[in-house]
Amino acid sequence: MAAILAGCPGQLAPTSQPAQAAAQEPAPAPTSTLPLVTPGAYCSTEGTQGVSSTGVLYTCRTSATDSRLRWRQ
């Protein structure tokens, strides 16, 4: 390293090791009691709420064009 820096005036060699990154702890599991649901899948109880694997909240309901209960946003 010193030989390389000798060819670059004004550059200094590092005097200490870079700080080690702190070990990251895994994120705590969500404390939600909502069931895991598949968006668009059939459901049975109107008004029930669930959450998708990506964390989006869905409600079991019908739509203006479909009378069947499905998980919808």
Write out key terms for the chains shown.
1 helix; 73 residues; 7% helix; Ig-like domain-containing protein
| Span of the ends, CA to CA | 59 Å
Q: Hey, roughly how much beta strand do the residues contain?
A: 15-25%
The geometry reads as rod-shaped
Strand order of the largest sheet: 1-2-3
Label the structural class.
Answer: mainly beta
Give the % helix: under 10%
- Provide a count of the helices: 1
The whole-angstrom Rg is: 28 Å
Region (Disordered): 1-33
Organism: Sinomonas flava
Biased composition (Low complexity): 13-33
Protein name: Ig-like domain-containing protein
Could you describe the 3D structure shown?
The model has no long low-confidence stretch (mean pLDDT about 85). This protein has a domain at about 35-73. With about 70 residues, it is mostly beta strands. About 5% of the residues lie in helices and about 15% in strands. It starts with a helix and ends with a strand. Strand 1 (about 50) and strand 2 form a beta hairpin.
In brief:
With 73 residues, the protein is mostly beta strands.
What order do the helices and strands come in, and which of them pair?
Elements: H1 2-6, E1 49-51, E2 57-61, E3 70-72
